[in-house]
Amino acid sequence: MSIEAPAARATTTESLLGLLSLGPLSGYEIRQLIDESIGNFWTESFGQIYPTLKRMAADGLVSVEETPDGKRRKKTYSLTDPGRERLREWLAMPVSVQVPRNELLLKLFFGNRGERSEMQRLVETRRDLLTARLARLRAIEQQITADHAGHPALPFWLMTVRYGTAETTALLGWCKDCLTTFKEMS
Amino acid sequence: MSIEAPAARATTTESLLGLLSLGPLSGYEIRQLIDESIGNFWTESFGQIYPTLKRMAADGLVSVEETPDGKRRKKTYSLTDPGRERLREWLAMPVSVQVPRNELLLKLFFGNRGERSEMQRLVETRRDLLTARLARLRAIEQQITADHAGHPALPFWLMTVRYGTAETTALLGWCKDCLTTFKEMS
DNA sequence: TAGCACATGTAATAAGTTACATGATTTT
DNA sequence: AAAATCATGTAACTTATTACATGTGCTA
Q: pLDDT-based confidence at A61, cuts 50/70/90?
């Protein structure tokens, strides 16, 4: 009868609720969908997805439909009303912020303990990575704008892409400043 | 005699090596120093620091000096030559990058499942947080520039601070764009 | 003398990745 | 016939946080 408060939950459950709000999905399909949608700022592994879906079904947040289409076995999960309610509740809750660990900055902070050329190489590598990322994000923005014109979620999806472009552009500028500093140091 | 390769190590060890390269420190002092130095992009808890220091001493990366000054018990750790060598090796290794989870973007991606005003409030809260962060970073930049003028590590320390200001400034702009979008939606 | 800062450490818990194990269906 | 893809799930391991446990010395 009594449901023990499960203590500060992770967000894996909520991310799956969100994805399932787009339509019924299997665990395998969820994994694929992540790569094509929220993959630039969120990941989930199979080791998390399958056990979490099972728990969510037990909690009544999703319903399961076994699909033995004569074909492969497959479990398709759908949001229930309590699941939709839980998603809405979570969306309205404040975002928890913690310090993200940044290994590049950690190395740079101790940069004068290493070779200057090595430190410079780390920044160059990051610059190249960010350059590729920026191109990818710009392509995504073009594509979703074209593919989902008029979709009520499009403004929200664009916000997430533009977060990436804004951040990436700024950090590319930072890389260039760093490389200038490296040149001045020698 | 044979040392089993400890498999892909975490960076807690390396962060402690870096901090100890600034001078001998106890576990407690390390925690304090983190708050005053790399706290904006790196954290370590006591639960990590103490066991890791013990392991590092066993591995010969640091030496321990018990300090029963007639005062409190205290263990002061110092880098050994193998520790310094390990730090240099790590600094030269490429930075591993993985997708950082961004809970704000996760919520915004599913934003049209919630109340528009709630989503807007999430962005406003983030804007306020970033505004405070920017002020803090600017103050730090002023202070370390004044306090450590001429210090060989200063250019590196400034790089880490400017990473923060560049990122924060860009994301503040993004917040404003989002809030404009929210206004246009209503 | 009460409370705070100093100081070290362990245990419980949480969260997540990777590798393993299994097997069906489709494509080359 | 082999390889790739679809599909589900578990086990082992790693990493980290939080809470707990303990005790000293200084200051209000």
A: very high
